C-alpha cells in the first residue's frame, strides 16, 4: 500500500457544545461561538448529534463547513423519526426530509450518516432490508455513506451482516459498552464508538487502553477485524477500507476530548 492509498483515520467526539468542557477542553474565556473552530483544530472529526432530535437550518450546516479546516469531517446522526418506529419501511418521508434540511451544505466535509436504533428494536430481515433500500446513494451530487447503530442482540446474526454488506452500509461497532458488539467490516469504511472513559483517568482511558484502540483503528484500516473484538462473520471479504471513523462517546464525557486527542497523538 502506497502512502497516498493509506486509509484515513478520523478521531473525534460527539458534538461540541458541552458546558463541562469549558475551562477543561476549551480555554477559559473562549466565546461559545468559537468552540467549533477550536475543537476542529484539536480533533479530526465530530459526530453531529443534534440532528437526531430535530432538523437543523441549512445555514447552520454551511456555517459549520466554513468554520472548520479543509480536511475536517463531520459524521451526522440521522433523525430518530426515521429509526424509532415499528415499521421501518414507512421511514421514507423522514429520510427525505432529513436530506432536504441542508445537510449536503457540509459539502466535502460530510462523512457517514449514523442511523441509530433503540435497544428495543429487533432485527426483522424484510423490514430492515426495505429501510436500507430507502437510504439514498447520492444527494445533490454528493455520494452518501450510511452506517447503522443497532443495539439489540438479535442483530448478532450472519443474515444481518450479509444484508449490511450487500448494501455497502457500515455496522457501527460499540466499544466498551453493554451493547452487543458487531465488529464486522461491511462497507469501504469503518465506524466505531467507544464508551468507556472514566473520571479517574486524566485522559479518560489508561495509556494501554488508548494504545489498544489506536492499534485497532490501524487494523481496521488494513481491512481486518482487530484482535479482542467480536465479529459475526469475520472471514467475509469486503472492499479495501478507505476511512476509519472512531468517536469517544458517553462514558465520563468530560474526559472524551482528552481521550480523542491522545488517540490522535498515538496515531501520529
Note down, in words, how this protein is organized:
The chain has 268 residues and is an alpha/beta fold. It has a single domain (3-266), classed as Protein of unknown function UPF0759 (TIM Barrel). Helices cover 29% and strands 18% of the residues. It contains 9 helices and 11 strands. It has helices at residues 35-42, 50-53, 58-67, 80-83, 92-99, 125-134, 158-166, 207-221, 256-266; strands spanning 8-14, 45-48, 73-77, 110-116, 138-139, 142-143, 146-149, 170-171, 173-175, 189-194, 243-248. Helix 1 (35-42) links the parallel strand 1 (8-14) and strand 2 (45-48). The longest helix has 15 residues, at 207-221. The chain is globular. The two termini are 18 Å apart. The model has no long low-confidence stretch (mean pLDDT 95).
Question: What topology emerges from the helices and strands here?
Answer:
Layout: E1 8-14, H1 35-42, E2 45-48, H2 50-53, H3 58-67, E3 73-77, H4 80-83, H5 92-99, E4 110-116, H6 125-134, E5 138-139, E6 142-143, E7 146-149, H7 158-166, E8 170-171, E9 173-175, E10 189-194, H8 207-221, E11 243-248, H9 256-266
Parallel strand pairs: 1-2, 1-11, 2-3, 3-4, 4-7, 7-8, 9-10, 10-11
Antiparallel strand pairs: 5-6
Helix pairs in contact: 8-9
CATH C-level name: Alpha Beta
SSE topology string: EHEHHEHHEHEEEHEEEHEH
**Coarse shape:** globular
Distance between the termini: 18 Å
Strand line-up in the sheet with most strands: 8-7-4-3-2-1-11-10-9
Amino acid at each position: 500500500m502506497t502512502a497516498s492509498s493509506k486509509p484515513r483515520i478520523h478521531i473525534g467526539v460527539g458534538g461540541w457544545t458541552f458546558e463541562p468542557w469549558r475551562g477543561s477542553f476549551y480555554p477559559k474565556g473562549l466565546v461559545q461561538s468559537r468552540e467549533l473552530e477550536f475543537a476542529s483544530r484539536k480533533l479530526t472529526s465530530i459526530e453531529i448529534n443534534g440532528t437526531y432530535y430535530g432538523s437543523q437550518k441549512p445555514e447552520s450546516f454551511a456555517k459549520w463547513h466554513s468554520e472548520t479546516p479543509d480536511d475536517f469531517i463531520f459524521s451526522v446522526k440521522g433523525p430518530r423519526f426515521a429509526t424509532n418506529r415499528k415499521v421501518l419501511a414507512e421511514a421514507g418521508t423522514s429520510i427525505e426530509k432529513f436530506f432536504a434540511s441542508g445537510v449536503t451544505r457540509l459539502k466535502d466535509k460530510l462523512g457517514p450518516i449514523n442511523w441509530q436504533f433503540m435497544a428495543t428494536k429487533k432485527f426483522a430481515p424484510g423490514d430492515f432490508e426495505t429501510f436500507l433500500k430507502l437510504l439514498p446513494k447520492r444527494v445533490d451530487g454528493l455520494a452518501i455513506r450510511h452506517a447503522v447503530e443497532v443495539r439489540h442482540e438479535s442483530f448478532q446474526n450472519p443474515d444481518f451482516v450479509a444484508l449490511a454488506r450487500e448494501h455497502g452500509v457500515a455496522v457501527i461497532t460499540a466499544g466498551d459498552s453493554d451493547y452487543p458488539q458487531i465488529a464486522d467490516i461491511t462497507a469501504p469504511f469503518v465506524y466505531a464508538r467507544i464508551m468507556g472513559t472514566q473520571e479517574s483517568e486524566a485522559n479518560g482511558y489508561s495509556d494501554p487502553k488508548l494504545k489498544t484502540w489506536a492499534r485497532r483503528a490501524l487494523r481496521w484500516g488494513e481491512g481486518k477485524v482487530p484482535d479482542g473484538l467480536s465479529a459475526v462473520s469475520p472471514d467475509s471479504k469486503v472492499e479495501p477500507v478507505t476511512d476509519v471513523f472512531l468517536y469517544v462517546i458517553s462514558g465520563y464525557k468530560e474526559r472524551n476530548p482528552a481521550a480523542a486527542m491522545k488517540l490522535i497523538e498515538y496515531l501520529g
